[in-house]
Amino acid sequence: MVSTLTSLHLITACSGALVFCFWLYTRRGWRPNLPPGVCGLQGFLNLPSVDGKIWLQILELNRQHGDLASASLLGTHVILIGSAKIAEDLIEKRSVNYSDRPRSVMCGELSGWGKIMLLSNYNDWFRAHRKLFAQEIGSNSTVAKFHRMIEFETRRSLRCILDDPARLQAHVRKNFTSIILRISHGYVTQEGDDPLVELAHTANSQLSMASAPGLYYVDIIPFLKYIPSWLPGAGFKRRAKEYAAVLHDLVEIPHNYVKSQLAAGTALPSFSSRILGKQDLTEELEDNLKWAAATMYQGGADTANSVGYAFYLAMTLHPRVMKKAQEELDSVVGVRRLPTFADRPSLPYLDALVTELLRWHTPAPITMRSTRVDDEYNGYFIPAGSYIFVNIWAMLRDERTYTNPLEFRPERFLGDNPEPHPGSVCFGFGRRRCPGYFIGHSSLWLMCAQALAAFDISKCVENGVEITPEFNLVGEILAHQAPFKCSIKPRSSQAEALVRQEFSLSE
Ligand code: HEM
């Protein structure tokens, strides 16, 4: 009896201690000097609700707790970075420790996206892919060989917008996807809807959903990945299977296309065809190439077109800016031809407009990292394995950096005291900075230049009422402006004729 009582006391005491430890653990975080923020379940339940926009949620926490804040639950620490200075200090200057991605069970493991560069950890596989990217599109000079093709695709897309402005978003998406598919796989998209453009769009939407922080419980409790798919509540496993099938197509279909074109002797020069044609091609190199080319295709088919679509919104909302850029184009280029890359150095206002666009609209509002080892910053402890959320969106709207940041004002980048160029933030940081920077920026610039030379973009009028669209960024790690209406008309019959003029790929 006595020993039973003792055992009972012992069990009660141990349970009490465990509950206390758990409470302490979830309430205070594992280390007391984590950056300030929210801890434990209650902290998470009280997170500000901001319409599903995680960048606004992080902004709110950084406002409450400082530019380096934290959120901890069950031993997982999320570090929230809200200033460009801290991002530079940690992610750029200590990049050895800050170049992995957080573990992503739903997207990286169950859906198979872990072999795509965006989700891969900083390892040999990743480095091999970055190297392949750098050789193909890693500088302005490597990208210059694609200028004529970009001009061709942009002209093609302007014609589609002219004929069918109601499907603006689809035409813009097709423009950027066509450019990247030419480079990655030598694939020429067909007129009208193209299956590979649609496939990339579907895959990117799924990627964004599957990798959205906190959307799937399996990312918080990884062992859930072992539960059978047929169990109630295992819907995420069935969904992951669907995502994996789409990813399989994204990787295999264009790769097999290049192989069949090579076999038939009809392959256009491309990133894939060049490597596949090597005498010393190994299975390992082919696998690397297949995934690197799919990464290029997937990466180039989303962010740039998100900015391209936002350009039309910016012009609809800011006619003063549009007119000023058109005046510059008319005086430098004239009205007898459309602008080309050769005009770029003579068009400073247009350059500033594109820079402002990259600040104003953020297609990747947050980026994520995870730490390899313990670190310390300004006296705060950042444990190994922390998830680091970098709020790109907030940095580009930081009043300490940009005057009246909500205004669309290209002039902020001109004159003797220009404000900081957003390029060091909007394309990400350190060893994971966007490898599509040169091709993305160039094709975006040309689209803006030619659209401004050819079109007047304005608010549309329905039943006598002028419709003012809203800036409404929606999405998760990949974000877009919500669909909006605007009016797109040729600036003159001469401008229309220029858009419709035959354009050959060879000069
Ligand atoms: C204007 C257009 C673009 C913007 C604003 C943009 C922005 C970004 C950002 C913010 C990141 C995250 C970087 C980080 O984690 O620090 C990223 C990554 C990436 N981008 Fe872009 N991007 C653009 C165009 C492109 C294009 C055209 C391609 C493809 C050719 C591309 C391919 C990638 C890839 C593969 C990654 C993953 C890099 C990694 O994880 O190491 N992007 N981009």
From TrEMBL:
<keyword id="KW-0408">Iron</keyword>
<protein>
    <recommendedName>
        <fullName>Cytochrome P450</fullName>
    </recommendedName>
</protein>
<dbReference type="InterPro" id="IPR002401">
    <property type="entry name" value="Cyt_P450_E_grp-I"/>
</dbReference>
<keyword id="KW-0812">Transmembrane</keyword>
<feature type="transmembrane region" description="Helical">
    <location>
        <begin position="6"/>
        <end position="25"/>
    </location>
</feature>
<dbReference type="InterPro" id="IPR017972">
    <property type="entry name" value="Cyt_P450_CS"/>
</dbReference>
<dbReference type="InterPro" id="IPR036396">
    <property type="entry name" value="Cyt_P450_sf"/>
</dbReference>
<keyword id="KW-0503">Monooxygenase</keyword>
<keyword id="KW-0560">Oxidoreductase</keyword>
<comment type="similarity">
    <text>Belongs to the cytochrome P450 family.</text>
</comment>
<dbReference type="GO" id="GO:0016705">
    <property type="term" value="F:oxidoreductase activity, acting on paired donors, with incorporation or reduction of molecular oxygen"/>
</dbReference>
<keyword id="KW-0349">Heme</keyword>
<dbReference type="GO" id="GO:0020037">
    <property type="term" value="F:heme binding"/>
</dbReference>
<keyword id="KW-0479">Metal-binding</keyword>
<dbReference type="InterPro" id="IPR050364">
    <property type="entry name" value="Cytochrome_P450_fung"/>
</dbReference>
<dbReference type="Pfam" id="PF00067">
    <property type="entry name" value="p450"/>
</dbReference>
<keyword id="KW-0472">Membrane</keyword>
<comment type="pathway">
    <text>Secondary metabolite biosynthesis.</text>
</comment>
<feature type="binding site" description="axial binding residue">
    <location>
        <position position="434"/>
    </location>
    <ligand>
        <name>heme</name>
    </ligand>
</feature>
<dbReference type="GO" id="GO:0004497">
    <property type="term" value="F:monooxygenase activity"/>
</dbReference>
<keyword id="KW-1133">Transmembrane helix</keyword>
<dbReference type="InterPro" id="IPR001128">
    <property type="entry name" value="Cyt_P450"/>
</dbReference>
<dbReference type="GO" id="GO:0005506">
    <property type="term" value="F:iron ion binding"/>
</dbReference>
